[in-house]
């Protein structure tokens, strides 16, 4: 599936059997990372509710995903991976963004390894990018693809679930968290999502920390196969949008984690 010039999602021809490479993303990949997320989420009930005018204003709709991708990549705690074709054009067919939370030895080492110069550069780039985005939206008259009340309501639900599952849970502070994992619809069912998730699972195993994520209805089956457990369902209203009381907050634990934290969870 891809987005047309008018923003409509159309089914692409069946994807050929091409070799897929998983690699670290660079800022030059950010437009494709954002586009992959915009395309993947285009037809979901949640997107239809939050972005009811996305077909009329496709540039505004895609812009939000691009901005989130860049903002995440400018954090020294972020690791972004892409699944790209091995052909010369290297088309990106999937992407995943992960953030390392907490203040344990693994988190501190990650930030230290980024280096002072790069952290300062990221700081300046983040503020510059923020200012540029504000100017862009000012000239566009705001994001016309959204229903503002729906966006604000959804943000409130997210804050509720943040409090339910993460805030005040000492044993869950130090973790990797999957911010976004997407595979273009015509490339799904080929193990790409599993390979992208393997990147963060290896790092979590190395650090001895859990992995958290918010799963969509469709994604829950994949995460269960990878060993994730359900911490709880989304706020009721989100379930109603996603359908049939599925989807929710999930966690993966490395070997020995539960024993070390018994009595805390």
What would your notes on this structure say?
With 265 residues, the chain is an alpha+beta fold. Helices cover 45% and strands 20% of the residues. The protein has ten helices and nine strands. Strands 3-4-5-6-7-9-8 form a seven-stranded mixed beta sheet. A hairpin with a 6-residue loop joins strand 4 and strand 5. Helix 1 packs across helix 3 and helix 3 runs antiparallel to helix 5. The longest helix has 25 residues. It is globular and about 55 Å long. About 2% of the residues have low confidence.
What is the tally of helical segments? 10
Q: How many β strands by DSSP?
A: 9
Computed over alpha carbons, the radius of gyration is 19 Å
Strand order of the largest sheet: 3-4-5-6-7-9-8
Mean pLDDT score: 90
Low-confidence stretches: 9-14
Oligomer: single chain
- What profile does the largest beta sheet have? 7 strands, mixed
What is the rounded distance between the termini? Answer: 41 Å
Strand residue percentage: 15-25%
Shape: globular
Helicity range: 40-55%
**Secondary structural class:** alpha+beta
Series of secondary-structure elements, N-terminal to C-terminal: EEEHHHEEHHHEHEHEHEH
């Amino acid at each position: 599936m891809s987005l047309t010039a008018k923003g409509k999602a159309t089914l692409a021809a069946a994807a050929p059997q091409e070799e897929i490479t998983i690699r670290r993303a660079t800022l030059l990949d950010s437009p494709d990372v954002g586009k992959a997320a915009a395309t993947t989420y285009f037809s979901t009930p949640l997107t239809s509710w939050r972005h009811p005018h996305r077909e009329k204003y496709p540039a505004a709709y895609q812009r939000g995903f691009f901005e989130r991708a860049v903002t995440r990549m400018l954090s020294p705690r972020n690791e972004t991976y892409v699944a790209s074709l091995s052909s010369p054009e290297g088309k990106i067919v999937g992407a995943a963004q992960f953030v390392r939370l907490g203040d344990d030895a693994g988190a501190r080492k990650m930030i230290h390894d980024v280096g002072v110069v790069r952290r300062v550069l990221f700081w300046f780039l983040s503020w510059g990018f923020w200012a540029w985005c504000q100017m862009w939206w000012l000239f566009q008259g705001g994001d016309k693809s959204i229903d503002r009340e729906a966006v604000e309501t959804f943000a409130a639900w997210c804050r509720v679930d943040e409090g339910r599952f993460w805030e005040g849970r000492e044993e869950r502070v130090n973790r990797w968290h999957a911010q976004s994992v997407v595979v273009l619809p015509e490339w799904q069912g080929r193990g790409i999502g599993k390979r992208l998730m393997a990147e963060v699972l290896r790092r979590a195993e190395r650090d001895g920390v859990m992995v958290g994520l918010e799963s969509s209805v469709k994604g829950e089956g994949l995460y269960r196969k990878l060993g994730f457990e359900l911490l709880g369902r989304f706020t009721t209203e989100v379930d109603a949008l996603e359908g049939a009381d599925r989807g929710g907050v999930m966690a993966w634990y490395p070997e020995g984690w539960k024993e070390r934290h018994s009595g805390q969870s």
